[in-house]
Design a protein that fits this description.
This protein is an alpha+beta fold. Helices cover 29% and strands 32% of the residues. It contains 4 helices and 7 strands. Strands 1-2-3-4-5-7-6 form a 7-stranded mixed sheet, with helices on both faces.
């Protein structure tokens, strides 16, 4: 992983961000039944309860991720994506470390996420498990769905 990676809060106005999120949505619809796709589009990510980050290196967008505040003590990871060309470079690990630090600073006691149950999502599940996330029950307004897995991590100060 390069030390030149820059993580910043993003307003989702850049064409690079729109392209990366479009790539993300295309993959989600290609691998999951439409009713099981919970990825957010640009409009839904531009909400007051969501903090959205992008990861850059030398003016190139490498990835993105967001945290949605569910309650004062519970956040949800949304829209984690690494550009196809930049997979395997440690981008997601670097961003997830940043997001966990943010969640702790916000006073969250728990972070949760929804991811797919298919093989396509195995690398993401392995990443989250390596950071202490465990598979658990549905949360927020999700329904039980065989195409979804729910993961949770209790945060300590």
């Amino acid at each position: 992983m390069s030390s030149n990676m820059d993580i910043r809060v993003d307003d989702l106005s850049g064409v690079e961000v729109a392209a990366l999120l479009n790539e993300h949505l295309q993959d989600m619809y290609a691998t999951s039944p439409a009713e099981s796709v919970h990825a957010l589009d640009l409009t839904k990510l531009r909400q007051d309860d969501i903090t959205f980050w992008t990861v850059w290196e030398n003016q190139q967008l490498l990835g993105c991720g967001a945290i949605k505040q569910l309650t004062a003590s519970h956040g949800e990871i949304k829209s984690m994506r690494v550009a196809n060309a930049d997979r395997g470079k440690g981008v997601a690990k670097h961003l997830l470390q940043h997001m966990l630090a943010f969640a702790k600073c916000q006073g969250y006691e728990k972070l949760s996420l929804e991811t797919g149950s298919m093989d396509f999502f195995k690398p993401a599940r392995q990443l989250y498990q390596s950071f202490g996330f465990d598979i658990g029950d549905k949360f927020a307004d999700y329904d039980n769905d065989p195409s979804s897995l729910f993961m949770h991590k209790t945060l300590t100060a």
